[in-house]
Amino acid sequence: MIDVISFLPGKRKQTSGGWISFNAPCCTHNGETADRKQRGGIKITDKGWSFHCFNCGFTTSFILGRNLGYRTRQFLGWIGVPAEEIERVNLESMRHRSIEGLLDDRQRVANVLANITFDEVELPDNFIIADENTPRVWEYLQQRCLPLDYPYGLQGTPADAVVAVRPGIVVPFTHDQRLVGYTTRYLDTRSPKYINCTPPGYVFGTDLQKNTWQSAIVVEGVFDALSIDGLAVLHADINDAQAQLIRNLGRDIIVVPDQDLPGMRLVERAVELGWSVSMPNWPEGVKDANDAVICMGRLATLLTIMQSRETSRIKIELRKRQLVKRLRT
Q1: 217-241: per-residue pLDDT in tens?
Q2: Parent domain of 179
């Protein structure tokens, strides 16, 4: 197999945990400034390696016996591995994959899909259901064109409190109709804007899907998902557990990234997973699905998403480059 260490920059250091740190090559490709603080880390194992960038958040890995994914190919190219060498590694890796290994992989995935559960949690203290009697939250929901039948809330200030609770809207997270987390979106100008209580691998919106639907639209944010009855992965990435949960729905998947530089990372992950991508040509200033609903309405937004749905890797890459060029000008 390839000696990936030999392609890394000369300036690097080894940590006590077995990680090799060096200037990450991915940052400039993901809309960040070049890494100068050795924030990239790679760890070698018996069967492959894992890479993580603590600057732009890019991650990828390689395990002997598996096909090289899109991100792995990207990383190898960024550190200078020739294209023909990458293909040779891929072929050699696949030769190690036995029939027994394939069957084991299928059984492992089936077991994970059949046992996706999350622990129940409690809502914040002094949680109050939002309605017409909580005008600030109610007006905010209406301004964002969000469905008013979802059980939003706010965290009220106790009568004996010395300091008032920051005003904010609480969105409960459920899975199989059980409360498993929540997010609070504060309505003032202070930071942070969001506080999340989210279990790893969770996808928002699975309880909102209907059995008769043939497609599921995957977006980044909770309000984007609520606007179009979609699924929210809650960041500009889709981890393996989330991908398994989404696949478990058994329908066509369409990923709609935020139209900003971090959102382009979600495009790469969608391509790696073999899912469709939609990057509609929305009006100026419209960055995400919720912006689009506010600007054009829900039906028009869904139509633009379906009309812009693309499965061709080449066409997805061309559209991504158009957006990146526009964002950087």
Answers
A1: 999 999 999 999 999 999 999 998 8
A2: 119-198
pTM recorded for the entire structure? 0.66
Query: How many angstroms separate the most distant Cα atoms in the chain?
Result: 69
Confirm if 7 and 79 have CB atoms less than 8 A apart: yes
Number of domains into which the chain is organized? 3
Query: What are the DSSP calls for 93-146, one per residue?
Result: HHHT--HHHHHHHHHHHHHHHHT-------PPTTEEE-STTSHHHHHHHHHTT-
Indicate the average pLDDT of the chain: 86
From the list 204, 209, 214, the residue with the least C-alpha distance to 250 is: 214
- Report the C-alpha gap between 245 and 176 in whole angstroms: 12
**Are the C-beta atoms of residues 138 and 132 closer than 8 Å to each other?**
yes
Same domain, 69 and 157: no
Residue 157: per-residue pLDDT: 67
Is there a contact between 174 and 209 (Cβ–Cβ < 8 Å)?
A: no
